[in-house]
Amino acid sequence: MLGICRGRRKFLAASLTVLFVPAVTWIYLFAGSFEDGKPVSLSPLESQPHSPRYTASSQRERESLEVRMREVEEENRVLRKQLSLAQSRSPMHHRGNHSKTYSMEEGTGDSESLRAGIVAGNSSECGQQPAVEKCETIHVAIVCAGYNASRDVVTLVKSVLFHRRNPLHFHLIADAIAKQILATLFQTWMVPAVRIDFYDADELKSEVSWIPNKHYSGIYGLMKLVLTKTLPSNLERVIVLDTDITFATDIAELWAVFHKFKGQQVLGLVENQSDWYLGNLWKNHRPWPALGRGYNTGVILLLLDKLRKMKWEQMWRLTAERELMSMLSTSLADQDIFNAVIKQNPFLVYQLPCFWNVQLSDHTRSEQCYRDVSDLKVIHWNSPKKLRVKNKHVEFFRNLYLTFLEYDGNLLRRELFGCPSETDVNSENLQKQLSELDEDDLCYEFRRERFTVHRTHLYFLHYEYEPASDNTDVTLVAQLSMDRLQMLEAICKHWEGPISLALYLSDAEAQQFLRYAQGSEVLMSRHNVGYHIVYKEGQFYPVNLLRNVAMKHISTPYMFLSDIDFLPMYGLYEYLRKSVIQLDLSNTKKALIVPAFETLRYRLSFPKSKAELLSMLDMGTLFTFRYHVWTKGHAPTNFAKWRTATTPYRVEWEADFEPYVVVRKDCPEYDRRFVGFGWNKVAHIMELDAQEYEFTVLPNAYMIHMPHAPSFDITKFRSNKQYRICLKTLKEEFQQDMSRHYGFAALKYLTAENNS
Fold first, then answer.
1. Cβ count near 73 (within 10 Å)
2. Start-end ranges of CATH 3.90.550.10 in the chain?
3. What is the mean pLDDT of each run of 10 residues along the chain (756 residues)?
4. Rounded to whole angstroms, how far apart are CA atoms 455 and 409?
5. May I ask the CATH class of domain 456-752?
6. What is the pTM of this model?
7. d(Cα 679, Cα 658) in Å, to the nearest integer?
8. How many CA atoms lie within 13 A of 94 on its CB side?
């Protein structure tokens, strides 16, 4: 409706101009053709020197009028052209996929309007909007610290990517934790036309640590104040966003508002939508000084070049020092200081329409910002309650947020056609590797999986680990999918040491896992469990990639390579730490074997000792692992010897051996060519043997496999002949690679395979 209104106004104004200007001009010329009440002829015949009315002054007047008439005619021609263009355009034309301009609601810039409130801020004016070029890069700055904030950044970025049509450059001011998480995420996400730069938030702490802050964001909530110093000196403008923001429109529309700044306006802000700065929320409430209701800093447009020239650093520091003498601390972090500066310098602000920051805080007045869904631009969850905040339309806002929270991020890997992008070495190498594969090969999908880059979110939940002083700590490493989630609590009860888990989930499943974990007292009481989400892509379960991800992100010198459906014996963690010392694992290449057993009973009274386990083994309650279906996998462990062993003993590698082992963290990775079911652990144990690891069985350690429904991959293996053919082909190629890499010593693997 607003677009139609503007179109009609433009058309009417242009029409009146074309009709009105010539009329006024000719009246002026006609009036000017009379001298003393008599008409003055402009005929060339009468303008000759011999004419009785000819004078020098009348000649000059006539020439100036002719020049003016030609100027008016030229103006009319231009106006007619503009009118014809206006007629040929429709509202839909401006909103097409190839449009380079974005329709924008007007904000306010004068000091009177700054005090006019939210309604005035949301009013519109008609006028031609400035263009955002198709391939113009939009710069966005975000301060992010910690594990939870990193999850919020992902949802924010998803909402921006969903709507965007321009290249994006994210400037992330992050602590070490957030940088590790987000650097891996964006590197594996591989979104075209998106650039990421990191700035060390810990180095900036000294810039703002002198400011006492009561806000829950802590010291990081003050770092937006120092962006003029932090961001590159050649960066002229940037959109600054809080992590709890959700976009409902193309961010280019907000970027276009920079063109509306006038004079000394350097900050684009939306008015605060609560009465906080009015000081009437409760008795003796004393907020920082602000202009009227003040401004919310969840969304900021910063003209960095002008701010630097104005000496912004000096400006905000002096203001903060002066106010802290009476206020003692900030309540809303950087927002209090921004408002105190604006109170003294109102000319700095360009007030954005309030739909650019619809604030869902307690006591909010945000309902005045929108009358329809189409009015919403940016939603700001600026209450500590976040999604639990009370609001008349909170269900709608929550559903919009959840849409992006659970949206498949792989679908956002969209090319921006027609826009040149920076060369991505990783992407080029990937394309080269894929191009070398034969798509007609019946095993093409298996081979392709080896090169698939899976989006990875490390440390999805809060993680804390204190290194052991004796340098003997062991991390349990495992991988799982959604159907094994119920095993987590049991494993945490059996293993008190650190755990590193790789979870293969979709975006929606990741949120289900988050809710499950947050609702579990057992999981929430454990902070030494690292949950790493590897997002689903492709048709196979990338079991060895998952193991590698979990292995790579351990913090201990040793790791126990297990599977999620095994429960370690009670006390195994401490037993392994003692074994590491006893067997001098730090100075020798050893793989310590934990014997594996299984039960077919879903309810099992777990054995508390080796003697109890042997009794259950004799009664048929327990079995050696895979005894019925795959004896070769664990036969070399020599269970008969283990029954009576009291000291560790060495065993030799045999074909198809796949025990569960404790090794140093520098052991080789699993081979990614093996996906789904079959040979994924066998190949790894073979490579350990090729690297001359010594296999040593621990006499008082054990683990028990719990029953579950067959996995989808083992079902495919059993039912699909081509699956089995491809697995056999991959085995042969792996053995050939082993021979090339390890030489003559690796020939035994080919011989063993032929004899098995």
1. 11
2. 138-353, 456-752
3. 47 49 44 42 38 47 56 54 45 37 44 37 43 91 93 95 95 96 96 95 93 85 94 96 93 96 95 82 80 93 96 94 89 91 95 89 70 78 61 74 92 85 70 74 83 94 90 96 93 97 97 95 96 94 96 96 96 96 94 95 90 94 86 92 96 93 96 87 93 96 87 74 86 87 78 60
4. 8
5. alpha beta
6. 0.80
7. 9
8. 21
